[in-house]
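Handout, section 3.2

Students often ask what a structure token actually looks like in practice. Rather than define it abstractly, here is a full record for Transposase Tc1-like domain-containing protein. The first block is the sequence as you would receive it.
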Amino acid sequence: MARLSREDRQIALGRLQAGQSQSAIARHFHVSQSTISRLWVRFQATGSVADLPRAGRPRATTAAHDRFIRLRHLRNRFLSASSSVQALPGPHLLSDQTVRNRLHEAGLRARRAHRGAVLTRRHRQNRVLWGNQHLRWTVRNHWRHVWFSDESYFLLQRHDGRRRVYRRVNERYAPNCVDEAPVHGGGGVMVWGAIYRWKEHPGARPRAHNCPAIRGGNSAPTRPSSSG
């Protein structure tokens, strides 16, 4: 079960004080309801959501170290734990696992990065513009006259070069957590399909292709030459 970071505890406390149920908060943070219940009991007893003093070996890092590690990985999500060990200022004896533990406390866990197409600033602006232009379209008056098409390129040779990224639970598609790379490979099959007004396009079928210019990707909805 996931452990709440200090920031998440503050957010959970605010939701509790606003009257949200413990079960709803637990689902939002992907923790058990008992975790939220203990957080509330601790706050009522101590007035704080910080961890209580506990017996055992003292922490290997200071508050300054913890902040340095957290900010470093927030600025560059693809850094490794070992690189942060070497980058820590001053004398220290830390392991890679200690850095991972501090990142876990901050809600950052190593995940496989989503691989997305390289998007320039102009690409992003055009996507936002397109979305705003079609924001008020309805099925009855607009979308029923549009072909929706999609295509995917399946490689014959697998190239698994996925990188790990430190991110929070809901940051899979955050721009700074996406591993941008052009689609490549040693040949494969292009699968294309289209649907229009609940009808399948008669020409939609797999085809072999090895043209880098059209490999993979998702095409936006396009209006057919003549409406039906």
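Discussion prompt for tutorial groups: The beta strands are 109-112, 115-116, 148-155, 164-167, 179-180, 188-196, 199-200, 206-209. How would you have guessed this from the sequence alone?
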